[in-house]
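debug: dumping io for the single-chain case to check the tokenizer round-trip. Nothing else runs in this session.
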Amino acid sequence: MEDCRKAVDGCEYVLHEAALGSIPRSINDPATTNAVNISGFLNMLIAARDARVKRFVFAASSSTYGDSKSLPKVEDVIGKPLSPYAITKLVDELYADVFAKTYGIEYIGLRYFNVFGRRQDPNGAYAAVIPLFVKQFMAHQSPTINGDGEYSRDFTYIDNVIQANLLALETQSAEAVNQIYNVAFGERTTLNQLVGFLKEDLAEYDADIANVEVKHGPQRVGDIPHSLASIDKAKTLLGYRPKYSLESGLRQAVKWYWDNL
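debug: decoded output
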């Protein structure tokens, strides 16, 4: 708690991006995920309240949509969470709303959809799919797709996310605060399509990567089958205009990985 108080001391605005990510990790160790993502989040809210922070902008998650089958995902229509991680991110939204109503702290929650980009760590047991696949392709190793590869995601390049965070910090609209927003590009791509894009981009640096085969494994427990965001709310209230599609973002990210991994 003391570290949280130091972090927000003298601040008018807080960007809270910290969390213990990964659905599989939360399934393997729900207690730690709960401690970090709920108790840790609450500590930050309390510290922000005591420091008289004006606005608290935080990383929410598309996992909150759970078993909802509706597409595209609209902020006010969610299902039941499918993992401990998803539960924690939903609870964070509820806590932020209560603190706004009870203590007067403005909040904006940003539900990120499958963020990727430069500097994303490809190592570790819970590495995100894009940096992990890039690392494996570069080593001419076959990546493993969970399931048949037809699950789809709204992959979101990091610069789109940065834009949304800055807009959330800077908005002066009373209607825009104390809201939850989807942050995505607004298109969905299957994992099979993603692999095709990655091989195409990486083959520009190493032609042999085009011939690396892909393996298929069992479907992961807790995964949402399809994810596609409606970004109309963020466009209307925040002025959000994402500049990078999956393809254009991948080209940027792949170049960074090639230069730095």
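debug: round-trip ok. The chain is about 45% helix and 15% strand.
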